Amino acid sequence: MNLPLEFIPTADLVDIIGPQARCCDTQFRNVGGAKEFCGTITTVRCHEDNALVKKILHKDNPAGVLVVDGGGSLHTALIGDMIAAAGLEHGWAGVIVHGACRDSEVIARMDFGLKALGTNPRKSSKTGEGESGVIVSFGGVDFVPGHVLYSDADGIVVTEHGVAKP
């Protein structure tokens, strides 16, 4: 049963769920202007190539969260201001990038959630290599398409379904 999604702070989620809470241990940098966001997970696995990221964020997905497994590479950016703006325009709540982003100052002024490991002004390739709709894993968490992600300044928590506020 899917619940209507309402943001709950991650610390409160852990208190509600208990020790089995799926908390991502990877330490991300908050880049986007929306510091708190939640939504249903869509995934991409790509390495230094952002064509799939761009394609997905150009599709409508109200309150969706794209989780991008870039293998932790900081060599090229997988998202920049134009792709983030497309995501915002198409209703996405935010993006988690296990890799780098660019145009961080511009994205910081957008009402869009973005967490990344860091920044790099270098563009990625655009061949379309990678895969989407697969389970990606980092920080001790499996990010499963259709599950729900909550993100704030304290971190990231993933649940199978939404969690109701107590």
Automatic annotation (TrEMBL):
- Cofactor(s) it depends on: a divalent metal cation
Q: What is its EC number?
A: 4.1.1.112, 4.1.3.17
Residue spans making up a coiled coil are none
TM regions (residue ranges): none
Identify the keywords attached in UniProt to this record, alphabetized.
Lyase, Metal-binding
The record ties this protein, via SUPFAM superfamilies, to: RraA-like (SSF89562)
Which Pfam families does its entry note? RraA-like
Q: What CDD domains does its record include? A: RraA_family (cd16841)
The enzyme's first-digit EC class, named in words, is: lyase
| InterPro entries the record matches | RraA, RraA/RraA-like, RraA/RraA-like_sf
Q: Which reaction does it catalyse?
A: oxaloacetate + H(+) = pyruvate + CO2; 4-hydroxy-4-methyl-2-oxoglutarate = 2 pyruvate
Purpose of the protein: Catalyzes the aldol cleavage of 4-hydroxy-4-methyl-2-oxoglutarate (HMG) into 2 molecules of pyruvate. Also contains a secondary oxaloacetate (OAA) decarboxylase activity due to the common pyruvate enolate transition state formed following C-C bond cleavage in the retro-aldol and decarboxylation reactions.
What family does the database annotate?
A: Belongs to the class II aldolase/RraA-like family.
What does the record note on quaternary structure?
Homotrimer.
Its recorded name reads 4-hydroxy-4-methyl-2-oxoglutarate aldolase
Say which species the protein is native to: Corynebacterium atypicum
